[in-house]
Amino acid sequence: MLKRKVLDQLIAWKQKSQGREALLVEGARRVGKSTTVEEFARTQYESYILIDFARLPRDVRDLFENQRDDLDTFFMLLSAYYRTRLQPRKSLIVFDEVQRYPAARELVKYLVADGRYDYVETGSLISIKKNVANIVIPSEERKMEMGPLDFEEFCWAMGEELLAQTIRTSFERRAPLPDALHKRAMRLWREYMLVGGMPQAVVSYVGHRDFGEVDEIKRGILQLYSDDIGKFSNGDAGRVRGIFAQIPGQLSKHEKRFTLASVDKNARFRDYDSAFFWLEDARLVNICRNATDPSVGLAMYEDNASFKCYMADTGLLVSQAFADQATTPDDVYRDILFGKLSLNEGMLVENAVAQQFRANGRKLFFFSRRDREDASRTMEIDFLIVRGYDNAAMKPRISPVEVKSTKRYGTASLNKFRSLYGARLGREYVLHPRQLEVEGERVRLPLYMAHCL
């Protein structure tokens, strides 16, 4: 059983909600929602029932259709069917893959009002209009997003809990790790980029350390996603698949902004808007939008037509990059692991950093400006985040973040950005393969500290 941070969030929800609301855990297929929620149910309640709507028995469907107005009978028959005694305020009912049966989600309003038990729903592609068009979404439902493992969770899975804690302590103290630990952490970071955070792939790697086996698992997940696109994308399957296939090529460019011409030379954004929405809403990609004015409240200044499109999991990106081959060559994994650039490692590093930020609940923004008349105003910053600034009583400030995959690099854009917007900024960060260094307001962090931001 992998240790997941969302388990602590589930426990906090239980303690705070006290049965006054249901919880919907959303996420892409195969990120571990069902496993984690069942672990939560097993360890935090006296009893639980898990109803899998992907394999809904006819008898249970009849309960939802015929007994919804008589909850006493509903619970009695449900308890008998699953051979589980339900204890008022001490039992949990889990609606797994609830998007397969939207009527159950609509019933949540009345179940929560009844107050006898707690309710957690899990689902993929939940908010796609096709799945909710004919139901009233309950206001008594709170949402929680779950994604692939972040780097810290990967360290836990690899038996490196102490190293993970040491990394956090080093970040908080702004003190570099000893060289031996730095090298070990960088090796883990590279392994993480290749394996990714999909639980099935991580479990396989922890057990066998076989990249070939991991690649086969990741390709199976990619095929599952492709099948889902065909089933659920409401006539947009061609456009969605075209975008998904182009992500590695787009990220391998120096400027990683997504160019629709790569999908179709005659493409117009309004024709593809719903396809990007579908991919983002299904949690298959992480969209990073250009914030035209670097001020706190970045969402107010986002340019929806200028964006970067990252894969939600970097391990899947590696396999997707070689989708034209039956398997990803072993020497690709080996060369990346040992720092030999057989492909554009920059796209993997930036994608992995985006994955850490999303795991922390951050919406993704970057900054880009082109000025042909004044080169001092031309710049591109990989990410903009909002953090409390210790030199301003922890008031929120914009922190620019640059991501570097090599040990030698320039910081011209950061310098220009500070010159133009210094009054709005807090600390600025460079994520790179080297040790932690502090130089005034600029903090250079090793890549394996990205999840700390």
UniProtKB/TrEMBL annotation:
Which Pfam families does this chain map to? AAA_14, DUF4143
Tell me the ranges covered by the AAA domain, including all copies. 20-155
Q: Which InterPro entries match?
A: AAA_14, DUF4143, P-loop_NTPase
Per UniProt, residues of the DUF4143 domain are: 227-405
Q: What name goes with this protein?
A: AAA family ATPase
Q: Which organism is it from?
A: Bifidobacterium avesanii
Give the classification, highest ranks.
Answer: Bacteria, Bacillati, Actinomycetota, Actinomycetes, Bifidobacteriales
